[in-house]
Amino acid sequence: MGGKKPQDYKTAIRAWGGGIYESIPIGHPDLWIPTPYLEVLLNGGLCGLNLTGYPLRTRSKIVKSAACEALGYPVPKTFKKTQPRFLGQQFDTYTQKSNNLQIWNEELSPTRRYAVIRLSDDDIVLRVKVVNGQTLAMHDTTGTITTKYQANISPGRSTHELVSALDTSDMQPYAKSDVRSFPSVRPTDEPDPDTLLPIAEVFRRLSPLVGQSFRDPGTDQERNRGAALHERVCRALGYDQYGDSGQFPDIRHQLLEVKLQTSPTIDLGLVLPNSIAPLDTNRIGKHQPRHCDTRYALFCGNSGTEVGELNAVHVCCSILLSFKRIWGWESNRGANPPGLEQSGDHGSLKSDSSFLPCSVMTANRLFSVAGFCFCISK
To answer: What backbone torsions phi and psi does residue 358 show, to the nearest 5 degrees?
Structure first.
């Protein structure tokens, strides 16, 4: 991880002296712990912790106390029943042996972090995985999330399209097109104003991937297929290593989300791409990145045989504001996001081109992530 190290945040929090319930702005340069660093600190403080023989309530207190010490916080005499329990750092802890994460009686929050603590059969902490609500939503296989946005793609004739010629105005001062490679940086590192590529350069580097073939692992292997593309994207951008933390956005160092579409439906998760909510990243210069600052590389491909092919790429930022020729949106919530006009009973995008609507899935409040073991097992 470039720049600050996880221990730097722990040291700063200890010097500050505040408690776990004191508010910290997302992206605070010294006190807000970005998710990858939070995961490192929690693993360092909790792995090997023996919870054998303790009742559930005592076990919960031991885990939270160890988490406080791992992050540099004083351990409170009693833990308040706040949501989330670690209010300042916006995360909850979930200690479990099973692969399915269940969150009861509350909706997933895109900005909240979820620390999943995996136990062995002997009640020893094996590993901690930290993800935010947006990432968890992408792993849902039950269809029981209260709200989840989707879009349908209706691509045009162009196989190479830079939909947004420029980054958002807040990001433009920090983008540098003269960065050729990243020899000592991982794709999962925090974004850095000295190595942030402008969106036009991202498009230029990714365009040669169109026409390349990939081995198709099967129609039910979306994640494996996406991982193969993700690795190619890392190389095309100039990284000498592949990295995937399972967090949003995929290429954290470039604020780039990568999607491979072999069907029209695109999962957007819990947040509309034009949201001005802050991203859980370091600040870039004086700017705290927002969801609407994220860049998207959307690859269209065919599959169904042993070998698939990438046949189009579309690159943009602020999808629902600038990607109108490809994306549509629909909501059952009544209010429309910026850039949308009311049309009948649902929101729709103003556009000169045809598009297909998104949908919002509604269901009960039990959230289960089936197959999450790939993230939290040894």
So the answer is: -85, 175
| Phi-psi domain of 89 (left: phi exceeds 0; alpha: psi -120 through 50; beta: other) | alpha
Backbone angles phi, psi at 290, to 5 degrees: -115, 170
Q: How far is CA 41 from CA 10, 116, 133, 248, in A?
A: 8, 14, 20, 20
pLDDT of residue 273: 80
| Non-local CB neighbours of 336 within 8 Å, separated by 6+ positions | 342, 347
Residue 29 CB coordination number (10 Å): 12
Q: Which residues pair with 124 in a beta bridge?
A: 50
Query: Which helix (H) or strand (E) segment is 301 a member of?
Result: strand 295-302
Can you read off the two tokens belonging to residue 112?
A: 């909240």
Which three-class secondary structure state does DSSP give residue 233? helix
Torsion of CA 199, 201, 206, 208, to 10 degrees: 140
Distance from C-alpha of 72 to C-alpha of 163, rounded to nearest angstrom = 45
Mean pLDDT of 190-205: 93
Position 83, amino acid: Q
pLDDT tens for residues 116-129? 999 999 999 999 99
Report pLDDT digits (tens) over 198-248.
Answer: 999 999 999 999 988 876 655 545 555 677 889 999 999 999 988 887 788
Is the CB of residue 130 less than 8 Å from the CB of residue 113?
A: yes
| Whether 149 contacts 262, CB under 8 Å | no
41 pLDDT band, cuts 50/70/90, is very high
Copy the structure tokens of residue 141: 């296989």
Q: How large is the average pLDDT for residues 281-286? A: 89
Question: Would you state the structure tokens that stand for residue 2, as one six-digit string?
Answer: 């470039």
The model's confidence at residue 167, banded by pLDDT at 50, 70 and 90, is: very high
Q: Exposed, middle or buried, 4 (CB in 10 Å: 0-12/13-18/19+)? A: middle
Looking at the whole model, is its pTM more than 0.85?
no
In this structure, the strands spanning 160-162 and 307-317 are parallel
